[in-house]
Amino acid sequence: MRSIPCFSDIHIHPTLKSFNSGHPLPSRNMWEDFEHIKPTTPAGRFAINNSKDVAKFSQTNFYNLMQGNVRVAFVSLYPLEKGFLKLRSVPKVITGKKGFDELTAVATGYDPKKVRYLMKNDDYFEELQDEYAYLKQNEGPSPCGKYKMKIVNTYGELKDIAENQPNTLALVMSIEGSHVFFNKAMLSGKLGKREMKDELKKNIIAVKNWENPPFVMNLSHHFYNELCGHAKSFNVLVGEGLINQKKGMESGLTGLGIKAMKEMLSNSNGRRIYVDTKHMSMQGRKEYYNWVRSYNYLNKYDNIPIISSHTGVNGFRTMAGSVMKKDSAAKNAKSRFFNWSINLSDEEIKIIHDTKGIMGIMLDKTKLGGEKFLKELKLAQNQEEYKDQVIQIFFENVFQAVKAIGKADAWDTLAIGSDLDGGINTLENYDAANKFPQLYDDLYSWLRRNKFQKALWYGLKAEEILDKLFYKNTMLFCERYL
């Protein structure tokens, strides 16, 4: 049925839990399968009860990737933003140092000692370099000696491993959030504008000089980073209760952000780092799209693609429609799609396609489906009905993107960007990388059985559609730009 040698995923976080598994040194390696700590306090139990759909185990450890034949993957480094460590409206069960440590450890998979260290350490850039060094330490053979992991810099390396080395993982470097460029001096508030720009440029060039520099990188993440505003990403309980995302939310690019963007995209100071637009505010995305379209118009032979590595659709036709109403529980209450502006409108999907970019569909049921879908999902009579509904919402997102583009080569734009190990509300039957073969087979069976929106297949067979989503489009994108 499949004509592909392996699966790909353009957004996973295999370092996140293992790198933060101890302090001063991680206690785990990236091949290990392990679970979050068990709660012993009311705060820990609060964390469990309020994150039931978030996996409490490593979803993308390297053995797990090998078992699922997910051998082409973009691994995203992520030093934890301080906004996650500054809880507000804290329930009484969380008060006290031990309670807070355990809540964070249970929710994230981090070791409590590492949580305490992160609360005191104000140097994202140092943390980024340590995480990169940790990833490099895990390069090479597996503990059992049967497998290998290699970080690749070129499409040639990637293709050779995918097609000729079935026991080797090929990882492509990425980073989530440009807060990582801020070191202790930049975060002190004591530097002037010129000093900030000089430090920023120095740190970007330092990252470009890594043995394996990042291929793609998000400009924004969950909290304001002085570079670009972010889209609202948390629900009412978290986003308007425990965690405060309000500062800078929905603002555009700053002067410092434009400097960061240009330094990242420059190919005169090292290899270009492509910007991943996921998590950018709508205003920031508009400004970035306009800059890219202008650049591509003036530089016919140096195309910059628009990338959104792990996302869903919001069902709106335009960017303006996406933000006509404020992102809130009320806005999403009667929507089939998750309709907040963090997801993509038809207009944006077409921009991605027109720049020969890529859009990764994530495996988070609360980002694929709105409240209307989630209510219907709870009414499923049995496991099969539940699974069918999850598969349908995945395909509704995919076909909405194809419909937005409106031509056959829309099928060259889409990939899987699962965000596994990124703290997502996972699809229960497909909650780890080793479930990719089952996910592919279930999607194939459902598509063949239902002939879903057959006019939008543009003559492709079900397996051809899935081969593009699970492998071929990632390789096509890397052939063009890696």
Summarize this, please?
This protein is an alpha/beta fold. It has helices at 15-19, 42-49, 62-67, 97-108, 112-120, 124-137, 155-164, 184-187, 193-208, 236-242, 255-265, 282-298, 319-322, 329-332, 346-354, 365-368, 371-378, 383-405, 436-450, 462-481, and strands spanning 7-12, 70-77, 140-141, 148-151, 168-175, 216-218, 274-276, 307-311, 358-361, 414-416. Strands 1, 2, 3, 4, 5, 6 and 7 form a 7-stranded mixed sheet that branches. The protein has a 3-stranded parallel sheet with strand order 8-9-10.
Describe the model.
The protein has 482 residues and is an alpha/beta fold. It contains 20 helices and 10 strands. Strands 1, 2, 3, 4, 5, 6 and 7 form a 7-stranded mixed β-sheet that branches. A 3-stranded parallel β-sheet has the order 8-9-10. β4, α7 and β5 form a beta-alpha-beta unit. The longest helix has 23 residues. The two termini are 29 Å apart. The mean pLDDT is 92.
Write the layout of secondary structure elements.
Layout: E1 7-12, H1 15-19, H2 42-49, H3 62-67, E2 70-77, H4 97-108, H5 112-120, H6 124-137, E3 140-141, E4 148-151, H7 155-164, E5 168-175, H8 184-187, H9 193-208, E6 216-218, H10 236-242, H11 255-265, E7 274-276, H12 282-298, E8 307-311, H13 319-322, H14 329-332, H15 346-354, E9 358-361, H16 365-368, H17 371-378, H18 383-405, E10 414-416, H19 436-450, H20 462-481
Parallel strand pairs: 1-2, 2-5, 4-5, 5-6, 6-7, 8-9, 9-10
Antiparallel strand pairs: 3-4
